[in-house]
Automatic annotation (TrEMBL):
GO molecular function per UniProt: ADP-glyceromanno-heptose 6-epimerase activity; NADP binding
Name of protein: ADP-glyceromanno-heptose 6-epimerase
Keyword list, A-Z: Carbohydrate metabolism, Isomerase, NADP
EC number: 5.1.3.20
Naturally occurring in which organism (per UniProt): Persephonella marina (strain DSM 14350 / EX-H1)
NCBIfam families: heptose_epim
Gene name per UniProt: rfaD
TM helices/strands, residue ranges: none
Domain NAD-dependent epimerase/dehydratase, residue spans: 8-241
């Protein structure tokens, strides 16, 4: 039987994944105390209307984290706070918020001998040419400063664990979608963006010719994998995806089906110098070590998501 943590700290707990994680943890561990730290730069209090714990405003890359987290004495930390906007080009800001913030969290973990589960990203793999599932140990090629910051966090986590003996586990998210992301606006998932366009009666806009493929993982699967990660037998990094690569055309087709529409895509040229054409997670490691198998394929995930957005459930 898994030991119930006494004090759970969640950084970035008012954001998309963080809020879903917090609400799930309070159901699983009703006797645990949960503290959320978030600077609310990419969050919405509405995501936490059913949260029963404490929420404090805090920039984890600043010294205030030590005053607000040390007294709490966490024995389990989920670190999701970071700049997730991949269009940010301010390299100093990205590295300070993401990398310096992570180092502060690890210092809190060291002081309290806490296990840490932190958000990594599939962006560390870069623009993969071959269409094969991506294994965690493959060569990394971060193409922007966001991906680079996550790559450096992975390196720091490994070094910290070797030096301290504490368990630090990365969850390398692929394209997460689902309820609670609306506040992200244009940085929400493509599934939400396309839903909004089609709901408004507009043709869904896709880069030519909509056959770019991504590994889309539903929020409930992402949260389950994140919580399971704390049971890892050792410090490591796990891919968190669906294990399937699906096209943007597939998304449009499913949204048409579940919304009762028949809108054809409006294809246009991709304006970006760098754009990932294909991502697919190799999920064998997390399955073998933790027994995690995604419960939602794209059909099931989009159907449930649309039902929620349409007020059907």
């Amino acid at each position: 039987m898994v030991k119930q943590p006494n004090n759970i700290l969640i950084t970035g707990g008012a954001g998309f994944i963080g809020s879903n994680l917090a609400l799930t943890l309070q159901e699983i561990y009703p006797e645990s105390k949960i503290l959320i730290l978030d600077d609310f730069s990419s969050a919405n209090f509405k995501n936490l209307k059913k949260f029963k714990g404490e929420v404090l405003a805090c920039d984890v890359s600043s010294d205030e984290i030590f005053f607000k987290a040390d007294e709490f004495q966490p024995d389990l930390i989920f670190h999701l706070a970071s700049i997730t906007d991949t269009t940010v080009t301010d390299q100093e800001l990205m590295m300070r918020k993401n990398v310096d913030g992570f180092k502060n969290v690890l210092e809190i973990a060291y002081d309290n001998e806490a296990t840490v589960v932190y958000a990594s990203s599939a962006s560390v793999y870069g623009n993969v040419k071959e269409h094969i599932p991506l294994k965690e140990d493959r060569e990394k090629s971060p193409e922007n400063v966001y991906a680079f910051s996550k790559y450096i966090m992975d390196n720091i986590a490994e070094d910290f664990s070797e030096k301290t003996g504490l368990k630090v586990v990365g969850v390398r998210y692929f394209n997460v979608y689902g309820y609670g992301e609306a506040h992200k606006g244009k940085f929400a998932s493509m599934i939400y963006q396309l839903y909004r366009q089609m709901k408004a009666g507009k043709r869904p806009r896709l880069f030519k010719w909509g056959e770019q493929k991504r590994d889309f993982v539903y929020i409930k699967d992402a949260v389950e994998a994140t919580i399971l990660a704390k049971e890892a037998p050792h410090s490591t990094v796990y891919n968190v995806g669906s294990g399937e690569a699906r096209s943007f055309n597939d998304i449009v087709s499913l949204l048409n089906k579940y919304l009762g529409l028949d809108l054809q895509p409006d294809y246009f040229d991709c304006p970006y110098d760098f754009y990932q054409e294909y991502t697919q997670a190799d999920m064998s490691k997390i399955k073998e070590e933790l027994g995690f198998v995604p419960k939602y394929n794209l059909e099931k995930g989009i159907k449930e998501y649309v039902d929620i957005l349409e007020g059907r459930i």
